[in-house]
């Protein structure tokens, strides 16, 4: 939205210079701006008529309350599956159907609103909108049919429930999930050929197995005939690719003759190792191409937008076109209404190097990036206690305490305490002495936090990026509250609440994680993992969509076929999960009765187990017994979609993230702006602050509170500075975008808008690949 | 050796110009030359004194018979484990120990020979040589101790057997395996920190599990207490990372309370998915860095050697140093004695563009690459039948047959025949009609081959790279021979030999693979896989080394503890694998008795099953029951070494190979020489020949015999041409090396020799990574 807002702002600068757009939150990184610009471009949801009403409607469409509302309705719609038959919490059909109609109305309203702020042509060309409308209509039809059949007591299938994730995917806010889906769609043709070849190989091996083992009269451990039916063989061999039935599938043949193991070894090398790696390679390669393409698109789109804005505002001074200082400042104020005057002056100093009173094109194009750089005010925040009672805080005893806390021995002492704590936790807590020790540890931790708050400035200690301080304090406070609550309940009612006890235990153990902070190498790995976090959530969304569809299908097909009885029940019915067809099956023998599709939560857990792959053939076999052999197709297709596609994309993503992190460790990436800021001496490297080399009470520090030499620098540094984002804290996308931008020549106008929108991943390869990027 | 030979040749050019080195085989690609040069450089086994005797000794050392002999002794030494207790084919200790001493003598002799052709200083600095000597001494000591103890009937451990792979690794010929080991060694520090963090995470989760589930009194399916011992929990959770005990390990807790599944889901996401991907990322990243570094080293070493040679031979002509044509020719003839005169003239035409009678430095440096480019003579080879009986062969009936065979309908007809054949194979062959059909198919295939041989020139049909033609013919001939043999035996003795029947069946089914050739996309994937083949063999060597060491240790620890009885035996002893400790264990229940360490072959199969991972905890549990719980450490360390390190390197390798293949598909890589050859019009693209666009009876075609327009071009093209290697058939290393070389400026002399030898992978990153190589 900031991007779109900016473009809108630029446009409105001439006709209605007085009107102010609603407050824009300062966006954190370049990517966000780029992404929004691109999205605005995709949707063309920039108001083309500039009437005040249209603009108000547009800003209302983008207002955060509207977005929260739409997400709320999506959540309600998806969670309806919890209340519909087969339900975790049953509700009458009338209630759920009314809720669903409400949601559909909300989605339709949102769509109408969107149509109002978008040119008709563009609106109807967008497949997203068509998708949503079709889904709404289909859902309504399904509801009516189901409702009327239900009224005459005929039970039918609520098939439209599997369409619900369409709403999650197709609203403009789910850009990341859509991007991943696009990436999957583009991978499909390549994957398909490898998959066909792989299936061909499985079939050839199945034929061989049929001929080699079919007539030997061999038996499996369960006493069933071994490898006599070509379809069963193909299934078993497909399972072997997932390794789930290794080595059991080999044992009868191996027991019969030593040499037959060679058949299975060949099969495993070719199909399990080579083909599965090839799948990963195909998925990864495509992911990579696609990522590069999207980022190139974003970078060019941003450039394009900024050039458009420049062309609207430019005036001719001398021989070149420039933007006057006044216009420039007004624009900056419109885009970012809460910008402080010193901040604006600083930006101007960067943009108008020669103090000529105007900004040239090259510097104007950087405006968006410039606004995205955080500016920090370095002024020494004094500790509140120092202000309230300077004499006590500055007394020699107090200073001694502060020096103690700052010393690294203080950290070590607490590391030792944590280790002792770990040993105590491992010991039996039935011993009263040990449960008293728990109180001791808790108070030691609380003392630590209080001491730190005494020594460090509290606002700095709880700074935005002080992940570990927040983590520590929250864990300790939660542990304190829950332990006290538990003790109160225990002494009052002589009763231990299981849930509360569990929470206490988990909190107690999570405290041990703090030891990671003390080891530098560990901290680096964890930081990388935390940076990946947000994108892992995108995968969460993707997995949710796929799981939801499969869960709905699974519930329609398998609900009620397998029932779970209390594990202490040993009636014959309980032993076969309430279904005689499961007698003597591996499913019943392994007590998998609770792995069923009787409600949404159980279905999700079964699907999770299928994702982990192991024993999936037993689950598939069990559900095939209670329904039909064709049920195995459901499980095979789940395996293909989730394990071969989605898990491989996940692995590709982690690989890529780590490669970027590794290659950055050894090199310097700076944008042109950062270089300029450095030259002018108005920037601070975030690393410098993090490593405690600078002042120790700014709100930008990360960890390592052992800065003793902070005092001298503290005096030297005052005033307003740009904060140059640390490499560690940049997201992968932002980094890649910066790298790409630094490769576009400053005067390069980029391809035309249509070209940009039609970039294909294939274009990305250089004509002559060089050594660095191919190995 | 060619590289070393070349360098030696250059050196000897002045002192003894008359002496000729032994015949050098034309080496196939640039890499080989580079690798040899590098190896010569590493080992300094280039004779520094130029006495004829020393040179003879040096050539004798590098003679192929010596290399075959040393490989033979390595094989004998390694296969001794088959004959020593616990033996597959028992031999008395005296026999095996004499064989071992013989091998050791051979190794020592080879080492002494090597010392004679190497400067003392260099020889003693090389850890490889020290390693071999120490291993020889240790093995002798062990043999003596074991022998004397055996003489007084005390059984001790033959520990030195685990050292045998040292010989395989440390002889200079196993360069590739050493390279992979170096790569693993360099990965270790990075892996170690991730592994420690991972173990820390497993421990934290174990503590949590102990507290959450330990006091619940839950039971596993086998009725054992669930999650009560911290060490057992840690083992179970480690197994869960490999997914081998999912979802069984979760079921008791999940049955008890729905919410506990969240604990396991969290664990699986963090440890199984994220940490395992991070391991792959670390291994892959390191593999990549290392590969690049080695290739850079090779390229610079080659450049260095060639400059050295140039400096010896140069004379001043005008203002620049050059090599005279006569010297250049003599050098080429010494390096490649069997070069034909037209070939040499062609090379000269490339090197001496201006026909000035001398070769300048830049062109001289290319000599090695130039000699490596294959030259083909395009002259129309007539079909032998055409020469013997031209009238019959050129008759209209014969021409019709030839046109039929060349037509693509011919290919389609045979594809249909293969499919029908596949259906017949799948049907029951007890039916006599079907077994007669088999004869029909066999004769159809034979007719196909005969027709093709009639139409195409036989030497072209069985050309070097005609993989599928060779495959076809061999399979058919083998099937014919074995089927005839089988029928003879059957009718003579009324007896079906099992082995022969199995081979017939496999051959029959392998024929179906031909269908792959008909589908273009399949052929591409298979070609890439075949190109990777040679390097996969390197992994074979690596896996062999690791498996051998683990097998020897396993045999010492576990042999005889588990015994296999015939599967039809159902005595109580047979059901517990001859060991009462296994009563009621999962190991015995699953009939894993044949998975034991009672001989080398069985051990290798168990280790293969452990590599596939599934059920490894049951194998580990079984062997822990019959020996000691500490036995699990053996299995865990095998998992860490093989699955976390070696399998990940294997995956990394396949990923990289596919990426290179993909990025080449879209781009053109040509070395400077190839460009020049193209400019001069004396080159033929291998692709052109493969796609059947050119003449169809040259010995360089690949597939696709449907060239109808060959006749015209056939006349146009005659004489000597360079064959420009197809992209498809280049190895990955050669490709990467070419890419890198095309980036070294022609006048760049490269760093000094010492700098080259001390390149570290860390140097490889560019100061400012660019967009292409980071994403």
TrEMBL record, chains A, B:
Q: Which UniProt keywords apply?
A: Membrane, Transmembrane, Transmembrane helix
Domain Ion transport per the UniProt entry, residue ranges: 66-289, 407-663
| Domain of life per record | Eukaryota
- Taxonomic placement: Eukaryota, Metazoa, Chordata, Craniata, Vertebrata
Subcellular location, principal = membrane
Where is the protein situated, by its record's location annotation? Membrane
| Region named Disordered | 1-25, 746-775
Mode of membrane association = Multi-pass membrane protein
Designated name of the protein: Two pore calcium channel protein 1-like
InterPro entries in UniProt: Ion_trans_dom, Volt_channel_dom_sf
| Cellular-component GO terms for this entry | membrane
Q: Coiled coil where? A: none
Transmembrane region(s): 64-83, 89-109, 130-149, 191-214, 226-244, 264-287, 409-427, 433-455, 467-487, 499-517, 529-553, 604-626, 633-662
Q: Name one GO molecular function term.
A: monoatomic ion channel activity
Gene3D superfamilies named in the record: 1.10.287.70, Voltage-gated potassium channels. Chain C
